[in-house]
Write a structure and sequence with these properties.
The chain is an alpha/beta fold. It has two domains: 209 residues, P-loop containing nucleotide triphosphate hydrolases (Rossmann fold); 69 residues, Alpha-Beta Plaits, CATH 3.30.70. The chain contains eleven helices and 13 strands. The protein has a six-stranded mixed sheet with strand order 5-6-7-3-8-9, with helices on both faces. Strands 11-12-10-13 form a four-stranded antiparallel sheet, with helices on one face. It has a three-stranded antiparallel sheet with strand order 2-1-4, with helices on one face. The chain starts with a strand and ends in a 9-residue tail after the last strand.
């Protein structure tokens, strides 16, 4: 469904995507993770044909930049930040429905499931809606239609707990149909839904793995990391993962959320030269992975 070959994107001389190559198959459900500035949103924008770039990008056999109208007809998209639209919410629903060849009632039905009353906001300018209302409406426009590809950039931002649960329920109903590319900082939210995790770091693939063990992904994992010597940079990163150091400054212990296991192991792999011992397993201490 998606083919990316040697994709490089620069902004003012700064490389944001660095010779990136990936492919995603039809119906595949992928979590795209990484820190701010890792290149996630830039990759999404390249897939939507918004940026010129080096290398090759193909969506359903089409180049998004050259065949943008055709590609966008096949894509349901939720942006990370809502656009500053002045049109009323009802007009946005009608526009989105006409653009993708669906009925406004289909979009309104999704909005209702998310807890948004379409009739109550119909005459209100989109820009004046609350953050949660904007997000619900954008999700409704993306999911209230048939599409081959769903690209969701931090889609659960600004959603209340009820809407969040409804949203992931809606995505679960689409599993096995549209290809899903979900950019998120919270892997725990999408772990039960996705089957593959791709982590970007400074525009490169730091981790690309398939999720095979749903049981482990639902657990809190006990973790112990021992460095060969105290090292401030690695220590700061381990603190960021919630691990605490002992008096020596070499041994760190704590818990890692199961859904973040793959990302954590990717981090360990990048610092393996500094790590003498790694234990990662269920809370009772069983299970061990070495680095």
């Amino acid at each position: 469904m998606i083919a990316i070959e040697s994709l490089t994107k620069r902004f003012d001389g700064t490389v944001v995507l660095d010779d990136l190559s990936l492919s995603f198959g039809s119906g595949e459900r992928v979590a795209l993770v990484g820190a701010n500035g890792a290149g996630k949103t830039t990759l999404v924008r390249c897939l939507l044909g918004e940026y010129r770039h080096e290398g090759r990008v193909s969506v359903g056999g089409l180049a998004p930049r050259e065949a943008r109208r055709e590609v966008l007809r096949r894509v349901g998209f939720v942006p990370q930040l809502p656009p500053p639209l002045k049109m009323p919410a009802g007009q946005l629903i009608s526009f989105a429905a006409d653009l993708c060849g669906t009925e406004p009632s289909a979009i309104e039905a999704v909005a209702t499931r998310l807890g948004l009353d379409p009739a109550g906001v119909r005459r209100r300018p989109f820009a004046r809606l609350s953050g949660g209302q904007k997000q619900k409406l954008l999700i409704a426009c993306a999911l209230g239609r048939d599409c081959d590809l769903l690209i969701l950039d931090e889609p659960a931002a600004n959603l209340d707990p009820g809407a969040r649960a409804a949203f992931f329920g809606l995505l679960a109903e689409r599993a096995g149909g549209a290809t899903m590319l979900i950019s998120s900082h919270r892997l725990d939210e999408v772990a039960a839904l996705v089957e593959r995790v791709v982590e970007l770091d400074r525009g490169r693939v730091a981790l690309d793995d398939h999720v095979a063990d749903a049981g482990v992904l639902g657990e809190q994992l006990s973790c112990r990391v021992v460095l060969d010597a105290p090292e401030e940079t690695v220590a700061a990163a381990l603190h960021g993962w919630g691990l605490r150091a002992d008096a020596s400054g070499r041994a760190f212990e704590g818990r890692v959320a199961g859904p973040d296991r793959l990302r954590f192991l990717g981090f360990v792999a990048r610092h393996s030269g500094r790590i003498r011992e790694l234990r990662l397993g269920p809370e009772d201490g069983a299970g061990r992975e070495g680095a």
